[in-house]
Design a protein that fits this description.
The chain is an alpha/beta fold. Helix content is about 40%, strand content about 15%. It binds flavin mononucleotide. Flavin mononucleotide binds next to loops.
């Protein structure tokens, strides 16, 4: 199944191609307006009759030290000169939470999954009454227990290997748990279906996750070089090099895994917690870097297995992974 990939890579074409090929595609609602999400849902439906999901950011109010964020802004002055743009306004936003919930309740995709936290039981039950399956991404056994208590239908178990933001409920500093131990630990606390995510980009990777207790697996980085993905050219080019990945708060104020680059190197040590404030603060810099093709200034989200990503249509990759999975079992 395709993982939700907000910030460009997820497109309606990718979601539809994954679902149409027998996988399960996602519309990534994060950072988009409700109208854009509605348009994307319609586009997926115009291309495939098959089921798909919509992923929404749960709006947590995490620690955001305004002084620390202002101090961080001061360390970014050289970046504003480099790219010739001003910093963005660091602010909190619920990313259109209420309106996006209303939208999915109306549109009724097969699944709605949540990142960064779990809605209360009442919201989960309301979506389920709309005949929508509710999934929640978890990064610890304790988060899994919270989501189970809220009544969700399945858990997306995201390991430390995963590209993009760690979906932890509290953006903890604790050492993130790798997918294999996490699957085993979460399986001990629930019988719910588990969707494994993080560092999976081959049929053998899927087989390993299934053997460790997962019911299905999500591939994120492994789909980012497909023609259907909206991954920027500079981001695609960075996938062809061989730099290591690292976790950083430098771009968004929330821990996320990306390919190590200049911006990460220069700013990781000063970056405070503060999501989504820091996301908005650095957004103009990242947009300018992307526009000028400067991979050194972009958040190059990628999981630890990103070097396995291949340039091929999503359907071809899914067929290849299915064959590898059959051979491995
Ligand atoms: C570019 C990018 C954007 C992402 N955006 C989202 C998102 O909007 N919602 C979400 O739940 N997870 C998001 N993730 C995490 C993925 O859904 C998934 O957990 C991760 O890609 C799995 O690891 P992999 O990249 O090694 O396959 C994102 C990951 C990447 C690489």
């Amino acid at each position: 199944m395709g993982a939700p990939l907000a910030g460009g890579p997820s497109t309606p074409e990718l979601a539809a191609a994954v679902s149409e090929a027998g996988g399960f595609g996602f519309v990534a609602a994060g950072y988009k307006s409700v109208a854009e999400v509605a348009r994307e849902i319609a586009e997926v439906r115009a291309t495939t009759q098959r089921p798909f999901g919509v992923n929404i950011f749960f709006p947590t109010r995490l620690e955001a030290d305004e002084e620390a964020i202002s101090a961080y802004a001061e360390t970014l002055v050289a970046e504003t000169e480099r790219y010739g743009v001003a910093l963005g306004e660091p602010c909190w936003s619920d990313d259109g939470w209420g309106a996006k919930l209303e939208l999915v309740a109306r549109e009724r995709p097969a699944v709605v999954s949540f990142a960064f936290g779990c809605p209360e039981a009442q919201v989960v039950a309301w979506l389920q009454e709309c005949k929508i399956e509710v999934w929640c991404t978890v990064t610890t056994p304790a988060e899994a227990q919270t989501a189970v208590a809220a009544g969700v239908d399945a858990l997306v178990v995201q390991g430390a290997e995963a590209g993009g933001h760690q979906s932890s409920f509290d953006d903890t500093d604790a050492s993130p748990i790798g997918l294999l131990p996490l699957l085993q630990l979460v399986r001990r606390v629930t019988d719910l279906p588990l969707v494994a995510a993080g560092g999976i980009a081959s049929g053998t990777g899927v087989a390993a996750a299934l053997a460790a207790g997962a019911t299905a697996a999500q591939v994120g980085s492994g789909l980012m070089l497909t023609p259907e993905a909206g991954t920027s050219e500079a981001h695609r080019a960075a996938f062809a090099a061989d730099a290591p990945t690292a976790l950083t708060r430098a771009f968004t104020g929330r821990r996320a895994r990306g390919i190590a680059n200049r911006f990460m190197h220069d700013h990781d040590a000063h970056a405070p917690k503060g999501y989504p404030h820091v996301h908005y603060l650095t957004a103009p810099l990242r947009a300018a870097a992307r526009a000028s093709g400067d991979a050194g200034g972009i958040n190059l989200w990628a999981g630890q297995a990103y070097r396995l990503s291949q340039v091929a249509p999503a359907a071809e990759l899914i067929e290849r992974w299915a064959a590898e999975l059959s051979a491995a079992r």
